[in-house]
Amino acid sequence: MGMPKGQKLDSAGLQARRREARRLLDEGVTQAEVAGQLEISRQSVSRWAQQPRRELAKVRRQGRKPQLGEAAKAKLRTALLAGPKAAGFATELWTVPRVRQVLVQRFGVRFSTVHVWRLLGQLGFSPQRTVGRARERDEAKIAGWKPRDWPRLEKKPAGSVAPPSSSTKAD
């Protein structure tokens, strides 16, 4: 039960769900029916039924505390936007290992490669690939060359040449 896959509630949503469960319980609805209606576990409803009303409003943080706060994420974003050379790297290319190195040096935290990818996504960064085109590329010449010369170079089906004979077929 719990939340449907991929769906999350904020603190206010969790409080509202608990209050709704308590209201239904006060109206005489069974714990099993409340659990079914709100799509939550019966154990949660049972626990909420035993708690005083003032305790239902308190929602504890779910999961581990983040190792990198919002202020640190903002500093990391600023460092990434400044570029790898500003961080002491030889080239202007950010890689996950380089970002991990910056995280260790500046914030003293070690994250897995997967988590660094996730963190970069949260900060609004996405993987980029170079186009791989020559700087000297002349678009006007290419536009003229394609319709004029390309058809001549393109492979064409063989003309009236007889297909090759097969040594496995009987004549």
Give an overview in words:
The protein has 8 helices and no strands. It is mainly α. α1 (11-26) runs antiparallel to α2 and α2 (31-38) crosses α3 (42-50). The longest helix is centred in the first third of the chain and has 16 residues, at 11-26. It is flat, with a radius of gyration of 32 Å. The model has no long low-confidence stretch (mean pLDDT 83).
What topology does this entry show?
Elements: H1 11-26, H2 31-38, H3 42-50, H4 53-56, H5 70-82, H6 96-107, H7 113-122, H8 139-153
Helix pairs in contact: 1-2, 2-3
Tally of helical segments: 8
Order of helices and strands: HHHHHHHH
Largest sheet entry? none
Low-confidence stretches: none
**Extended strand count:** 0
Query: What's the N-to-C terminus distance?
Result: 71 Å
Rg, rounded, reads: 32 Å
Shape: flat
- The amount of helix comes to 40-55%
How much of the sequence lies in strands comes to: under 5%
Category from helices, strands and their pairing: mainly alpha
Tell me, rounded to a whole number, the average pLDDT. 83
